[in-house]
Amino acid sequence: MTIKIELDKSEENFLEVDAEPLQWDAADKLDLTYNVNVSFAQGWRRIIQLRDGIWLTISRYQPVDRLILNKPGKESPFVHCMFTLSGKGQFIVPSTLSETIFSRAAGKYKLTSSGSVARRIIDESDIEPYCYLDILIRPSIFCSFASSPEEKLPTNLQHLFKTPNQDFYRRGGDISPEMNTVLQRILHCAYQGIIKRAFLESKVIELMALVLDQEVAIQQREVKKVPLKPEQIERIHYARELILQNLSKPLSVTELSHQVGLNEFLLKRGFHQVFSTSPWKMGREERLEAAKRLLADQDISITEVAYRIGYANLCSFSDAFRRKFGISPKKYQKKWR
């Protein structure tokens, strides 16, 4: 049997029961444990606010059956990193053109930036016990490590700090042996009170430093990629023309690559080098700009506008429009009528 749950923004922590949380550490009022709703799983979730801007969550539970959670999009002010130590599943980020899948399995971690988090599906297919650790950090904490107030964050880390109306960045990775050592020390921390808080905060910062070190290396490899040939650049521009010509029926990356004569990897790499974005993101941005023009210039319904720019689902269109422009399609249309 599979348990499918459709959540709204107020049900983000649906696994927790409504009862009062318990203090894990009697000497720390900000170290709380919530029991898991027995209808879905058996276990607990421990949430520690280390300071105003750093949260550590340790979750251990065993689902009663396979769980599929459909979580809505939201705005997140945090850089978030999740480390999975046991259990097996996946994160699915759907889109109009395709979907992105991240493994949620032992030995994997997932890094996401602040910004507008897309709707995602969490498939917890393993009924064996889950154990994962979440770190949420406000961007201001990272800025506090700068040597002076005027110093900017490194260019190859700025993509992790986005405003609420910007799409979030996400990446999956493998937990390195160094990361695993730090994770085990966090899980088996025997300190209490102030000493515990100091210890855990130092380990959280160390863990994030290891993740960011990997992120910097990845971004540097991106910059050092082989330059495109003139004919490849020409094909990349042709791909952009095809995107603009097919706003009502968006082409998948596979279809686009076939039409322009480039493989998918080269097409995506070329788009990032030439336009600093992906084919999918460019298509979505252009479609939303077209929707904005239609809403302002023509007396048509919002449903028709969504259909004309390739959105079969009105809610998905409204959410994407609001994230892009900070206003709903309905309110935007009213401004022009």
Count of β-strands: 15
Distance between the termini: 51 Å
By DSSP (H or I, 4+ residues per run), the number of helices equals 10
CATH superfamily of the largest domain, called what? Answer: Jelly Rolls
Task: List unreliable stretches of 5+ residues.
Answer: none
The biggest beta sheet, please?
8 strands, antiparallel
User: What global shape is seen?
Assistant: globular
Helix-strand topology string:
EEEEEEEEEEEEEEHEHHHHHHHHH
Q: In what range is the share of β-strand residues? A: 25-35%
Indicate the CATH class of the largest domain: Mainly Beta
Order of strands, widest sheet: 2-3-4-5-14-8-11-15
- The name CATH uses for the topology of the largest domain is Jelly Rolls
Q: What count of domains describes the coordinates? A: 2
Percent of residues in helices comes to: 25-40%
Q: Helices and strands: which structural class?
A: alpha+beta
Quick gist of this model?
This protein is of the alpha+beta class and 337 residues long. It contains ten helices and 15 strands. The strands form three sheets. The chain has an eight-stranded antiparallel beta sheet with strand order 2-3-4-5-14-8-11-15. The chain has a five-stranded mixed beta sheet with strand order 1-6-13-9-10, with no helix packed on it. The protein has a two-stranded antiparallel ribbon with strand order 7-12.
Characterise the protein shown here.
By secondary structure, this protein is an alpha+beta fold. It folds into 2 domains: 2-223, Jelly Rolls (Sandwich); 230-335, Homeodomain-like (Arc Repressor Mutant, subunit A, Orthogonal Bundle). It has helices at 139-143, 177-187, 193-223, 230-245, 253-260, 264-275, 279-297, 302-308, 314-325, 329-335; strands at residues 2-6, 22-23, 31-35, 41-51, 54-63, 66-71, 74-76, 79-86, 88-94, 99-105, 108-112, 115-117, 120-124, 130-137, 170-174. The strands form 3 sheets. The chain has an 8-stranded antiparallel beta sheet with strand order 2-3-4-5-14-8-11-15. A 5-stranded mixed beta sheet has the order 1-6-13-9-10, with no helix packed on it. Strand 4 (41-51) and strand 5 form a beta hairpin. The longest helix is centred in the middle third of the chain and has 31 residues, at 193-223. The protein is globular, with a radius of gyration of 22 Å.
